[in-house]
Amino acid sequence: MSVLRAAFSLRYALVTGPALLALAAFAALVLHLGADWMLWPVALAAAGVTALGVYDLTQTRHAVLRNYPVAAHLRFLLESIRPEMRQYFFEGDKDGAPFPRDKRAIVYQRAKKELDKRPFGTQFDVYQEQYEWLHHSITPRPPVGHEAMRVMVGAGTRLPYAASLLNISAMSYGALSANAIRALNRGAKAGGFYHDTGEGGVSPWHREAGGDLVWELGSGYFGARAADGGFDAGLFAEAAADPQIRMVELKLSQGAKPGHGGVLPAAKVTAEIARIRGVPIGQDCVSPASHAGFSTPIGLLEFVARMRDLSGGKPAGFKLCIGHPWEFMAICKAMVETGITPDFIVVDGKEGGTGAAPLEFMDHIGMPLRDGLTFVHNALVGVGLRDRVRIGASGKITSAFDMAKVLALGADWCNAARGFMFAVGCIQAQACHTGECPTGVATQDPLRQRGIVVPDKADRVANFHRNTLHALAELVAAAGLSHPSELRPHHFLRRTDADRVLSFDALYEQLQTGQLLADPGSSPRFAEAWARSRADSFARVA
After folding, report:
1. Between the CA of residue 137 and those of 143, 240, 380, 407, 489, what are the distances in Å?
2. Model confidence at 340: pLDDT above 70
3. pLDDT tens per residue, range 400-430
4. pLDDT at 2 over 50
5. Is the separation of the CB atoms in 187 and 461 below 8 Å?
6. Within a 10 A sphere around the Cβ of 137, how many other Cβ atoms?
C-alpha cells in the first residue's frame, strides 16, 4: 500500500513521471510504432532520472531525499553555493532566520562526525552589543572525559540517578513521529543519557531500545489518567515501576506556551494514541491549563512527594517556565515550612520551541531561560535549600557554549530538544503543526516518516551528544577548570555597550546562602516577591 501511495503522490512525480515516460518510449521502440532514434535520448534521460529517484528512495543518510527524491537535490545544490546563496535561500536575514545558521551547522557537523572547524576567525562582531565570551586561562587543564560529566539526582532517594550533563528534552509521541522517537531513544541508549517523554506518555517507541526515560506527567495525566480526567495513583504506580523510567517529572508549564492548555482533536485520537494516553477513542483529548491534583504550593510539593513514593523511590521533580515571581517564592516558602523538597526542578525558558502555539505566547509570555534560571537558583540559595535540589535547564541550548553559560548561572545539567531534532533530520521547515513535515520528524504520516532511517539517525543522536560534551570539556579546560561544575558567573562577560563590558555576576544578582531567611529586604530583585508570597497560596499577597 505504501508503494502505491508513493507512486501516486505528487512528491514522487519526478520519479514516476520519467519512469512512465521511459517505459512508453521503450515500448514504442520495441513495438516499432513509428519511433525513430530521437526517442533514445529521451528514454535514456528519463531512465537516468528514474534511477536517481530509486536511489534517493532507498538511500539511508538523507531523510529529505527519501521523501522528495530527485527534487530535493536542488536544496543540496543551493546549499553548496556558499556562503551568499546558502544564506539567502536557507537562512533568511538576521531578524527573519528561524535559528542561527552557525548553530544549525554545528549540530549537523557533530551529528555526522564531520569537521566542526572553520577558517578566517569569528563570524561575530566582537564590538557589537550583547557579544559574549568566556575567560580563558594561561594555565589550561587537560579536558575531562565526557563519561565523568554526570550529576547525581535524588541522592537521598532509594533509586538515585546519575544524569548526563546533556539530555533529550521533552517531546511527546504524537508531536514527533514513531521513527523520530525510536531514533532518539536508541541514541540515548547508545550514549548513556536520558530521553524525556514529554507529556504525551510513554509509548512503545520509547521502550523499544531501552534507553533511560524521564516520564513527564502533565495536566492531562496521560498514562495515569482516571476516567474523569484526574490523576490515578494506581495507574501511575504501575507504569512508573518500569525500570526504564529513571525519574518522574511533573510538568507545570513549558516555555513556548506557559499558562496555555491544549486540545488534540477527536479526529486525531487514534486507537494507538488513545491507548497510550488513557483517553477514549474519537473524543477530544484535553490538556487543561492548570492541574486538578493540587491548588497550593504545599499541595504541589505533596503531589511531587507522592509521585516519588508511588514510583518506588525514584527521583521526582517538576518543570516550569517562571511567570509571577511570587509564585515560585511561595513554593520556596512551602519547602521551608514543610521540609518537603523536590529532587530536581527543570527551568524551561520562554525561548523553548514547540510544534504549535499562539504567536503571542511564543513571543511575549514567560521568562527567558537565563532570567528564570538565575531566579530559581538564587531563590533556593536564599532559603538554604540549593544543596537539596538539582536544577536542569532547557531552552534553545544547542552548543557547548550554550551549556557552559547556563551551567555557570546555576544549572546542574541541560536538556535540549532542537539540537537532537536536527540530529534526527529536522531541517526546520516549520511545518510541524501541519502534519506535513518533509523529513518525517514531526508527522504521523507513515509515508513521510519512512524518511527517517532509525539506525542511521540514532548514531547521529549519540554523535551529537558525545561531540558536544567533548567540546564542553575543551571549553572548561581552556578556562583552567577541571569540571563543568566549577563554572561560575564571573567566568563570562557580555558587551553591554560599545565601551562597556560586564561579567555575568554583575548582570545577575547572586544571593548568599540563607539570605532570604535572614534579611529578605536586602535583595532588590527578590524582596517584593518574597513579601508578596505565602506557602499556602499561589495568590499574590496584597
Report:
1. 13, 46, 31, 18, 15
2. yes
3. 999 999 999 999 999 999 999 999 988 887 8
4. no
5. yes
6. 12
| Cβ(251)–Cβ(219) below 8 Å | yes
| Residues in Cβ contact with 143 at an 8 Å cutoff, skipping those fewer than 6 apart | 470, 473, 474, 476, 477
pLDDT recorded at residue 97: 41
pLDDT at residue 162, rounded to an integer = 98
Q: How far apart are CA 454 and CA 120, in angstroms?
A: 37
In 121-273, DSSP assigns E strands to: 132-134, 150-153, 161-164, 166-168, 195-196, 213-217, 245-251, 262-264
Going from the N-terminus, what domains does the chain have, and what CATH number goes with each? 146-530 (3.20.20.70)
Cis check for the bond before 83: say yes or no (omega within 30 of 0): yes
> Whole-prediction pTM value?
0.87
Dihedral pair phi/psi, residue 13, rounded to 5°: -60, -35
Contact predicate 286/295, CB 8 Å: no
Per-residue confidence at 90, pLDDT binned at 50, 70, 90?
Answer: very low
DSSP code per residue over 262-326: EEE-GGG--HHHHHHHT--TTS-EEE-SS-SS--SHHHHHHHHHHHHHHTTS--EEEEE---SHH
β-sheet bridge partners, residue 390: 344
